[in-house]
Amino acid sequence: MTHDELMDLAERILTEEDDEVLSGLMEQFDRNVPHPEGSSLFFYPEGWNARNGGLAGYAPTAEEVVDTCLAYRPICL
């Protein structure tokens, strides 16, 4: 998927209200980005741990999530 296609998909994820449709969109997003947390980043910050704080201030844009996912590079040992 191109960056623009991922942006369109991300916008749909952020606005979708039907849980079944949302699940399918998130699966599609995860198949097309290298980040292991992928679509979870729409709802939780990268590496989020409930013991470290709340989510009240977390509201990423579609562009922030897409850019974070595309910038991810796995550690090669």
Detailed description of the structure:
InterPro entries: Colicin_E_sf. It comes from Neisseria elongata. With 77 residues, the protein is mainly alpha-helical. It is built from three helices and no strands.
Q: What integer is the average pLDDT?
A: 92
Radius of gyration: 13 Å
Total domains:
1
What is the overall silhouette? globular
Q: How many β-strand stretches? A: 0
Sheet with most strands: none
Question: What is the end-to-end distance?
Answer: 28 Å
Please state roughly what percent of the residues sit in beta strands, choosing from under 5%, 5-15%, 15-25%, 25-35%, 35-45% or over 45%.
under 5%
Uncertain spans: none
SS-derived structural category: mainly alpha
Total helices: the number is 3
The helix-strand sequence is HHH
Determine the fraction of residues in helical runs and give it as a percent range.
40-55%
Layout of SSEs?
Blueprint: H1 3-15, H2 19-31, H3 62-71
Name some characteristics of this structure.
single chain, 77 residues, mainly alpha, 3 helices, 47% helix
Short recap of the structure:
This protein has 77 residues and is mainly alpha-helical. The chain has three helices and no strands. It has one domain.
